[in-house]
């Protein structure tokens, strides 16, 4: 069964971005549970930022699951990417993501690689950059496999990366490299920018999809833009998707209203 989740950013120094809830773990979990979500997707400073035992206790208290953990802080706070020309920086990026994978694995939750994939630099070589990305995903996929979880790789829109922008491109990359335990993230916001046909892309890449980000065409909560969710829902059901549909969206018009809009949209299309 497809499950609902909502994003929570716990980095106090950040105050804007596509996350629904912010900063207060206890109060946010209480609101998430009261609205009827199944889980929460966390964005944290590092893999050691939270006490895992305490988080488990609080999630159990509210009847919630950890849906996924984001790794973007590695890029946002530390400037780390898997495709940096500097080998020392690439190793730091791998270490950072591996730590996030280990943290998430304690909850059977995957880690997501989005912005930490990096870019082909103006002075860089495209094929060499893809090779560096493949090397990083190979190491991290094996680490995830050793802990019994998957690693989620996210194709981003052209304004955020010049690597892979579509599910088809991401699927081809995974297939060519035969990664262990690496799946794709189907982010509906990015897909609205890059895909010719969202439902066909989902059908064609179905066996590679391991996580879904639930945001409308303008990155507001689903229902505030022009995404046609009905056919997307049917496509996800056709491919047998049974993971999380997680709201990585702007907290518009405010976090509480955004969360309410999200769960109402989720119930409309998935229940």
Task: Provide structural commentary.
There is one protein chain. The chain has 271 residues and is α/β, with parallel strands linked by helices. The chain has a single domain (3-270), classed as Alpha-Beta Barrel (TIM Barrel). 43% of the residues lie in helices and 15% in strands.
Features:
271 residues, alpha/beta, TIM Barrel, 8-stranded parallel beta barrel, 10 helices, Xyl_isomerase-like_sf, TIM barrel protein, Sugar_Epim/Isomerase, Xyl_isomerase-like_TIM-brl
What pattern of helices and strands is seen along the backbone? Answer: EEHEHEHHEHEHEHHEHEH
Find the structural class using helix and strand composition. Answer: alpha/beta
Overall mean pLDDT score? 97
Determine the fraction of residues in helical runs and give it as a percent range. 40-55%
Strand order across the biggest sheet? Answer: 1-3-4-5-6-7-8-9
- State the helix count: 10
Residues in β-strands, percent:
15-25%
Give the N-terminus to C-terminus distance in angstroms. Answer: 10 Å
**What is the fourth-level CATH superfamily?**
Divalent-metal-dependent TIM barrel enzymes
Tally of DSSP β-strands? 9
Shape: globular
Named CATH architecture: Alpha-Beta Barrel
């Amino acid at each position: 069964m497809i499950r609902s989740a909502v994003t929570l950013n716990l980095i106090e120094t950040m105050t804007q971005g596509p996350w629904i809830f912010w900063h207060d773990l206890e109060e946010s979990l209480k609101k998430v549970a009261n609205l009827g979500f199944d889980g929460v997707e966390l964005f944290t400073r590092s893999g050691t930022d939270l006490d895992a035992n305490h988080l488990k206790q609080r999630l159990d208290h509210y009847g919630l699951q950890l849906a996924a953990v984001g790794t973007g802080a590695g890029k946002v706070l530390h400037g780390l990417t898997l495709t940096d020309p500097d080998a020392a920086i690439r190793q730091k990026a791998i270490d950072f993501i591996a730590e996030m994978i280990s943290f998430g694995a304690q909850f059977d939750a995957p880690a997501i690689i989005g912005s930490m994939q990096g870019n082909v630099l103006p002075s860089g070589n495209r094929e060499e950059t893809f090779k560096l990305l493949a090397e990083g995903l190979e190491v991290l996929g094996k680490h995830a496999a050793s802990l019994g979880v998957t690693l989620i790789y996210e194709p981003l829109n052209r304004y955020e990366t010049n690597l892979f922008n579509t599910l088809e491109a991401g699927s081809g990359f995974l297939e060519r490299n035969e990664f262990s335990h690496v799946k794709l993230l189907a982010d509906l916001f990015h897909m609205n920018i890059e895909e010719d046909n969202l439902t066909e892309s989902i059908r064609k890449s179905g066996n590679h999809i391991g996580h879904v980000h639930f945001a409308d065409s303008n990155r507001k909560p689903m229902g505030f833009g022009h995404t046609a969710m009905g056919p997307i829902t049917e496509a996800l059901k056709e491919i047998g998707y049974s993971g999380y549909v997680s709201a990585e969206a702007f907290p518009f018009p405010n976090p509480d209203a955004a969360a309410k809009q999200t769960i109402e949209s989720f119930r409309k299309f998935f229940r």
